């Protein structure tokens, strides 16, 4: 029995990525203008997970305080969420 190595991840073009997000969001009725910003929140949260501070995230995304606090970052601290989930802090 031969085991195949895992498939290598390939970088997507912007248009391919946007098209796939459009197909995924059109089915449940999400407004079309949301698909261009769908990754903004996740990238801000991923940056927070690797301990980037809020000022670094704000500069990288060119966000003001209201936008970053209201839309992208959670009000709960990372340490609180980790401890409540049973992870060491």
UniProtKB/TrEMBL annotation:
It comes from the Eukaryota. One of its GO terms (molecular function) is DNA binding. Residues 1-34 are annotated as: Disordered. This is Uncharacterized protein.
